[in-house]
Amino acid sequence: MDFLYTYESLKLEFPLTDPEKAKFVILGVPFDGTTSFKPGARFGPTLIRHATLNLESYILDYDVDIAEFPIADIGDIAVVAGDPRKTADRVRETIEELKRVNPDALPILLGGEHSQTLGAVEALKPASYVVFDAHLDLRNSYEDNPYSHACVARRISELGIKEALFGIRSGTKEEVEFAEENGIRWVHARDYSFDSFVDLVESLPEPVYLSVDIDVFDASMVPDTGTPEAGGLSFWDVVEAIEWLTANKRIAGFDIMEVAGTELGGVTALTAAKLMFYFIGAMGKKML
Ligand SMILES: [Mn+2]
After folding, report:
1. Å from CA of 283 to ligand 1 middle
2. How many whole angstroms from 55 Cα to the centroid of ligand 1?
3. Helices then strands (H, E): number in the chain?
4. Binding region for Mn(2+)
5. What is the CATH number for 106?
6. Are the C-beta atoms of residues 249 and 234 closer than 8 Å to each other?
7. What is the mean pLDDT of residues 267-287?
8. Where is the signal peptide (predicted)?
9. Does residue 94 lie within any of the structural domains?
10. Residue 193: phi, psi to the nearest 5?
11. 57 or 13: which carries more pLDDT confidence?
């Protein structure tokens, strides 16, 4: 089927399934209209798809081949340049359209700015939002834009969705106070452990939307992102959290955001692609 706001783009090399029948449905959001430091997030989805060419679809430690799972790729959102709210509306409408034709579809968003997660969350209406991010993203407005990437967790909290944030090492005093006043729990990257993750997410209501801002990883692993930060989490920290979450909670949707850059084959996109494979592997393993 054709989607109103998507266009054909470089797609995964896998044998792909029809989006009406797939379990995993990949959607790119090549938006970077509010990037404040390092541009190039508009190339994120293409860079991640390209990086998958370097990866085996067989996941060694799971003994599963994700190419055997029903995966669809519906292309990229046609963005409204410079307008994160209108672009997020298109993300929302596209995912709503997808869920109408395939209620079992699990959307996987590839970004693109983190601002676009809002559209996916609005469409999927999860009870909880779990995010791996270097930044709190709890500002009320940033550079006069309430739909900036720096405000996305705030906008999502205003929808009445419970939040837990991990790997944080950047925020303002106002954001910390907002989190305190609104019962938003977060774990600093220095204090992060698997136990700290389970402690916070165990009691969260389902379904859960899981968002990974690629800048949660140490800046040495992910140089090509809008706002890199030193002192981040390791790859296996996030994989282990994904494994626990997919085994123990119903997942409404998943995204990997803020991949940027202009060169194919960069380590940032490779990290994102590998993480996507682990997510699909962990979810798919459960379905076998
Ligand atoms: Mn971030």
Report:
1. 25
2. 25
3. 8, 11
4. 114, 133, 135, 137, 213, 215
5. 3.40.800.10
6. no
7. 95
8. none
9. yes
10. -150, 165
11. 57
Plot region of 263 (φ>0 → left; ψ -120 to 50 → alpha; else → beta): beta
H-helix or E-strand spanning residue 287: helix 267-287
Q: How far is the CA of 150 from the centre of ligand 1 (A)?
A: 8
Question: Which residues line the annotated binding site?
Answer: 114, 133, 135, 137, 213, 215
Q: Which phi and psi angles does 20 have, rounded to 5°? A: -75, -20
187 Cα–ligand 1 center, Å: 14
Q: From the CA of 76, how far away is ligand 1's center (Å)? A: 22
Asked if 109 and 91 count as a contact pair (C-beta separation under 8 A), the reply is yes
Assess whether the previous peptide bond of 207 is cis (omega < 30° from 0).
yes
Centroid of ligand 1 to alpha carbon of 26 (angstroms):
21
Query: Ligand 1 centroid vs 215 CA: distance in angstroms?
Result: 5
Q: Establish if 69 belongs to a structural domain.
A: yes
Q: Is residue 205 part of a domain?
A: yes
CA 127 – CA 104 distance, rounded (Å):
17
In a domain, 1, yes or no: no
Going from the Cα of 151 to the center of ligand 1, the distance in angstroms, rounded, reads 10
pLDDT tens per residue across span 177-191:
999 999 999 999 999
This model's pTM is above 0.70: yes
What domain range includes position 55? 6-287
Residues, beta carbon < 5 Å, ion ligand 1: 133-135, 213, 215
Q: What torsion do the CA atoms of 137, 210, 167, 272 make, to the nearest 10 degrees?
A: -100
Domains of the chain: total: 1
